[in-house]
């Protein structure tokens, strides 16, 4: 149900023949921009008197705070503590919302409660104080005949219509100054999402709205209540179009009607989707320069986690559903989650993997550590951070020996018969580009080209160089049977890996933990042109999880300095390590992160240029 705002400046007669529906309003409270959602969450049960007395001339929306009082006596000191708590725990609330207060007494106090709040209310400029329970005549504050909301609402800041008594949620508006989003989203009452219509002036950026954190309480059923999530624009969200990073694609197709089940799991667990995030076209990885602002994020989970100081997981293949997600290569695709907080990361993983989390299928952590690409002694600050982490992990796991892995030489001495004596780099060289180019071409490109041509007199849409070069190569430089061969080679490698490198174990799920350096604080500047996009051939440690279907998880472990060619000063970048275990042992690595946090070996990185 849509609510029609009747702003005081609107002449009712002039809109009689037009269809006017509100997409919400932008309101400034204490200098901060807010968005009042168009869908009321409740409506007041009060006398008309009260509403008219609360309406300041020209202002239709009254900032209001709903407070839950659990004390037996709501004194000035309880009130101030609550205001302090709201201010500290929520970036949406500010004291401007204390113009009106609705107090819901949920404590076990007497039926008639005293609210000796006069001075405190004056201090915050409170014009309207509405206790839900009867109050004594000796109360110092003003009160009105008021029985409450038709539907009780959670504590927090809201906007109340002075004309209708309807109550609307408050979203704080932020400028997307990093250019990370394609659209700001807001949930509709029917469970779909729609595009946020509000805009904060200045900053030359899109606007993102976030609801008050005070509306949400985490519970067993809603472990992600109020967690704000951005979703890469290759996951469908009902009510919103998907772009896959391509404007022609975005124009061509209508809004999706079904949300990808991975995203739906997050929403069902209480997460709030605040926007769709930029992707390279059709998720074909590339390194961005600042000339082309559409491309901000490259890689999918692992690289953005490594360079931004986040925990992130590429799951074991198949454990998280991919319906409603754009295909790059179904043989390789997975859906993961990145965040700074390892506890939130684990909570989100339990929701995303659902019953596939397999946290309970091991009794102890692995004792065996394998490293790949580690230095033997540290010659840089970042290497010092890396080796210090390794040493603490060895102590934590009670590991006695750490083995350095050399994949090409181990392969050379144990080459599977099916590989016909090929070195590993030759054997796997074109597996990745064959799979992504040929599988994406048949599943996505062909139907997209056909639909686009049908709607545009036979024309082809514009495609960025990176996907175009790969699709062309997959259609002209390799045979049509290359996908089958690539899957054979990938499968041979996967079996070799789990028999020779990281073996499964009944005791610890994975016999060993394999570490490789994720990022070592070396900058990738955006004001430097790189080589033209090409075909991503080759094999390296970062391809192992794609081919062996094993989890590859990023832990931020510290930071190190570098001399910036931009600021001409010493700056800091994150240091990260990647962790791989046997297929299906993802749950054990989330547990490990949590235990390492408790042991002080891992921390929660901060935002900004100093992550630790
Ligand atoms: C304020 O927060 C503290 C710490 O979370 C809590 O102990 C206290 O009960 C809160 N006070 C009120 C009035 O909610
Ligand atoms: C768990 O993984 C299996 C194997 O890929 C998949 O078929 C199943 O749908 C997954 N279960 C859930 C609850 O996601
Ligand atoms: C693909 O084949 C064409 C024509 O034979 C050749 O010019 C081109 O270099 C090849 N592309 C790649 C990436 O190998
Ligand atoms: C698969 O491996 C064979 C070697 O046995 C190699 O000749 C071929 O190019 C590989 N094919 C793909 C698509 O990876
Ligand atoms: C794990 O236990 C099962 C059943 O007891 C057994 O068949 C299997 O070989 C064991 N696997 C390993 C890796 O020890």
UniProtKB/TrEMBL annotation:
Q: Indicate the segments forming the Amidase domain, all copies.
A: 218-288, 299-341
Ordered alphabetically, the record's keywords are: Signal
What range(s) does the Scytalone dehydratase-like protein Arp1 N-terminal domain occupy? 52-174
Signal peptide residues are 1-18
Gene3D superfamilies referenced in this protein's UniProt entry, alphabetically: Amidase signature (AS) domain
Taxonomically, the superkingdom here is: Eukaryota
Pfam families per record: Amidase, DUF8016
Give the InterPro entries listed for this entry. Amidase_dom (IPR023631), Arp1_N (IPR058329), AS_sf (IPR036928)
Protein name listed in UniProt: Scytalone deHydratase Arp1
């Amino acid at each position: 149900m849509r609510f029609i705002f009747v702003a005081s400046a609107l002449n009712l007669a002039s809109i009689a023949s037009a269809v006017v529906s509100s997409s919400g309003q932008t309101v400034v409270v204490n200098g901060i921009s807010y968005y009042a959602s168009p869908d009321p969450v409740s409506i007041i049960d009060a006398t008309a008197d009260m509403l008219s007395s609360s309406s300041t001339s020209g202002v239709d929306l009254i900032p209001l705070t709903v407070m839950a009082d659990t004390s037996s006596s709501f004194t000035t000191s309880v009130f101030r503590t609550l205001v302090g708590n709201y201010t500290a725990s929520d970036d949406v609330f500010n004291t401007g919302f204390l113009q009106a207060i609705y107090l819901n007494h949920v404590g076990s106090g007497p039926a008639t409660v005293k609210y000796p709040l006069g001075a405190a209310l004056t201090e915050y400029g409170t014009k309207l104080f509405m206790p839900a329970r009867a109050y004594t005549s000796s109360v110092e504050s003003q009160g009105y005949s008021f029985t409450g909301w038709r539907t009780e609402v959670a504590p927090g800041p809201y906007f109340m219509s002075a004309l209708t008594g309807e109550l609307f949620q408050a979203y704080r508006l932020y400028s997307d100054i990093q250019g990370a989003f394609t659209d700001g989203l807001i949930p509709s009452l029917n469970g779909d999402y729609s595009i946020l219509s509000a805009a904060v002036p200045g900053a030359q950026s899109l606007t993102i709205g976030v609801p008050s954190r005070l509306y949400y309480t985490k519970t067993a059923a809603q472990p992600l209540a109020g967690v704000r999530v951005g979703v890469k624009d290759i996951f469908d969200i009902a009510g919103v179009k998907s772009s896959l990073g391509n404007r022609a694609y975005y124009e061509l197709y209508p809004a999706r009607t079904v949300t990808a089940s991975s995203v739906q799991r997050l929403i069902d667990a209480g997460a709030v989707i605040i926007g769709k995030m930029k992707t390279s076209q059709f998720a074909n990885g590339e390194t961005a320069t600042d000339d082309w602002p559409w491309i901000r994020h490259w890689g999918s989970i692992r690289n953005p986690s490594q360079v931004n100081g986040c925990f992130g997981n590429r799951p074991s293949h198949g454990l998280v559903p991919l319906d409603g997600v754009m295909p790059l290569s179904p043989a390789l695709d997975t859906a993961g989650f990145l965040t700074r907080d390892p506890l939130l990361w684990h909570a989100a993983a339990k929701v995303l993997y659902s019953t596939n989390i397999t946290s309970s299928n091991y009794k102890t952590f692995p004792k065996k550590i394998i490293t790949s690409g580690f230095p033997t002694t540290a010659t840089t600050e970042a290497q010092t951070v890396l080796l210090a982490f390794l040493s603490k992990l060895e102590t934590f796991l009670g590991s006695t020996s750490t083995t350095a892995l050399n994949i090409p030489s181990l392969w050379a001495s144990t080459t599977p018969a099916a590989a016909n004596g090929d070195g590993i780099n030759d054997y796997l060289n074109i597996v990745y580009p064959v799979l992504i180019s040929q599988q994406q071409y048949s599943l996505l490109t062909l139907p997209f080209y056909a639909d686009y041509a049908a709607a545009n007199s036979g024309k082809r849409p514009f495609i960025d160089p990176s996907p175009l070069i790969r699709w062309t190569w997959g259609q002209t430089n390799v045979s049509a049977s290359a996908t089958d061969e690539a899957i054979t080679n990938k499968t041979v490698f996967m079996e070799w890996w789990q028999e020779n490198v990281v073996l499964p174990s009944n005791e610890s799920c994975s016999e060993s933990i394999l570490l490789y350096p994720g990022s070592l604080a070396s900058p990738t500047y955006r004001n430097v042109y790189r080589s033209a996009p090409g075909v991503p051939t080759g094999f390296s440690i970062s391809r192992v999880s794609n081919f062996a279907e094993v989890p590859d998880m990023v832990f931020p472990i510290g930071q190190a300095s570098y001399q910036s060619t931009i600021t001409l000063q010493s700056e800091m970048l994150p240091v990260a390590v990647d962790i791989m275990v046997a297929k299906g042992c993802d749950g054990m690595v989330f547990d490990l992160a949590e235990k390492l946090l408790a042991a002080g070996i891992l921390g929660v990185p901060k935002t900004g240029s100093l992550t630790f």
